[in-house]
Write a structure and sequence with these properties.
Length: 142
Amino acid sequence: MSETYLKPLHVSHSVKDLDASIEWYRKHLDFELVFKMYLSVHHAHLAFVRHGTFEVELFMHDKTQPIPESRLDPHEDQRTRGCKHLAFLVDNAGELCERLRSEGVTIVREPRVMENPDLGIREKVFFIHDPDRINIEFIERL
């Protein structure tokens, strides 16, 4: 079997306010707007924001509904099928967490070291919510 080339391209999030989400990703995570448009066939506004080569697709349906309460806690959400969260590798989790906190971003799980010596894993991890309370994880490899 031949090896298939796979590179993460984008993740898609449904949002309540497209312009507010675009601004939030720009202000807090240094994403830039690629484009935005209205897709009448889907009754939704669509935008792509990019950081490096990775993009987040943001769409706002004309009749958007809020995320269920059961999906808000990253650990409780593990019981629900579907995509769980977006994660980024970072250089300094503690420093980033403090910057985001000072900017008013909701910290869902404070930075903590997680390790599994048997697997050689040692990481500092924390979670935030974006404006639509979607979980975003940041991981610093120690």
